[in-house]
Write a structure and sequence with these properties.
This protein has 175 residues and is of the alpha/beta class. It has helices at residues 4-14, 31-39, 52-64, 99-106, 123-135; strands at residues 21-25, 44-49, 70-74, 87-92, 110-120, 140-147, 150-155, 158-163, 167-174. The longest helix has 13 residues, at 52-64. It starts with a helix and ends with a strand.
Length: 175
């Protein structure tokens, strides 16, 4: 599950409006999908996830939070994206090593000034994002940040810092 601090930053970077159409690719448990659906009550959120267990979690989380504008789609991206309406924002948490194919599929579906937010755990995925954006600089502007969240954990009478893995958030928007 995407940690709370990363969800907050990713959603702010996506600039989701109340009537937005949002894709969440590699949705996992649907934590970002649910939050996006709450930000876009008049819009639609499409959570794309390849695992049946993930789809079940997404549906359970949507029901738990009372969001009715979230549709869970079991598919491995880019399959499953072709029939979706044009997107205002795309959240990408997993690419299954198909980043280029996914980007080539969503680029024509992304509305002008639409935004894509990648959450990259590995340096390789980060570099794939940056390489793609550089090779498509006529279409996209991008920025990248690295986020390191550390929480205090109580150990006896002491509080000790416990770091989470760093995450790279790459935000792209169409020119």
């Amino acid at each position: 599950m995407t940690k709370q601090e990363i969800r907050i930053l990713s959603l702010v970077k996506a600039r989701i409006k109340p009537d937005a159409v949002v894709y969440d690719i590699g949705a996992g448990t649907g934590s970002l999908s649910v939050e996006a659906a709450r930000l876009a009550p008049q819009g639609e959120v499409y959570a794309i996830e390849r695992t049946p267990a993930g789809i079940n979690l997404i549906r359970a989380n949507a029901a738990n939070f009372g969001v009715t504008n979230l549709k869970a789609i079991q598919a491995e991206a880019p399959e499953g994206l072709a029939k979706l309406p044009a997107a205002d924002a795309v959240l990408i948490g997993g690419t299954g090593s198909k980043l280029v194919e996914i980007m080539d599929t969503i680029t024509p579906k992304l509305k002008p000034e639409g935004r894509i937010v990648f959450n990259c755990i590995t340096i390789q995925t980060l570099m794939q994002c940056i390489d793609y954006m550089r090779s498509h600089s006529d279409e996209y502007i991008y920025e990248a940040i690295q986020v390191q969240v550390t929480r205090l954990q109580q150990v006896g009478t002491y509080d000790m810092a416990k770091a989470n893995n760093p995450i790279y958030i790459v935000t792209c928007w169409k020119k």
